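quick one before i forget lol
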Amino acid sequence: MTGPPPMAADLVDGIYRNAASLQQQGRYAEAEAQYSRLLDYFPGSAALHYNIGLLLYAQEKFEASLEHYLRAMDDAGDDPDLLYNLGLCLQKCGRTGNAALVYEELTRLVPDDVDGLYSLAGCHRELHEYDRAAEVLGRLLVLEPDHQAATGSLAYLLHLQGKLDEACACYLRLLELHPGHQTARHMVAALRGERLGTAADEYVRTVFNGYADGFDDSLVQGLGYRVPEGLRRGVGLLAGADRTFAHLLDLGCGTGLVGAAFADICRCLTGVDLAEAMIIRTRSKQLYQHLLVDGIIPFLGATDGRYDLVTLADVLIYLGDPEPMLAAVHRKTTDDALLCFSIETAETPTYRLQSTGRFAHCPDFIGRLAAGTGWTVRHREVVQLRREGDDWIGGMLFFLDKDSGGH
């Protein structure tokens, strides 16, 4: 059995150049065909396998890309660019531990490779190896002190480890680098115990866009989150087994956990969330008739809808002062509407921003605000909201109806 007939060197060079040009233009299928033609002649070529790996990665064909990167490694295993892209591909394939090993080798070969160090730190963070992640970020920041992403990641890790003073210093440094950074500004206020009326939209959007992938499994399976089910149970007890609702408004809908809990008793569901990535995940579940990326107050000010059930699951922890929301919801609901939500509780006269960056509320304060905005608290119950570390976060579920409802 013989291979393909010999190919002239100038023809090989021409095909390769054409393939590279097609790849740069984003004409990936044509480029792959040209590279594959050359592979018939040079099956062990690291450059060909590497370039095919790149174009497959660009098309999100990560497993196929990985095969070619690994073939390229046979002849060019110490190439930093190959190692970096192999690491990225391994992460996309869910092999974070292997990616960390690749980045370790990259940073051994090129100790001042900032991108490699940042990716290595990200792998350690994903593997919950927080001390190692922080150490790598520290090395990076020695090389590039103004690296904003590394500064923010280190602040997050220090905060997660309970090193609050160090975390605050990192967030302050991030504000020096980026004075408009809303997450850093919010967390400095939280760590200093400053009083804020609400969390900035950009902070909330950033947090939840980052959480969208794996949010359901992490929150429900990992942290024991059952607030949607608790709200559904409470509404069932108050409204009775036979009541159905014409239109549910789920404010801060996230990935649609509330919609899943309430879909059987609601004819129409509208979900609103600041985080576009959350809305994308929710849309894939096909539970809601309407989904919008918007803030709560802007949406309530613009909508023509009238809702008979409104839910806010783990939303007041980012609102702070809930009075504007309570008043706005009152204006957009039917006379027989129910409003239900969760809070984190704290011994405070009103509400306070905690070092976690979330707000906690006094239950009696919520009751006073409800009365002042036309609502009656029909029921409230103490719950464990979810796990955080080794402890449970204490909270409360509230169920309100309108004063005009005749109860």
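fyi DSSP finds 20 helices and nine strands in the chain.
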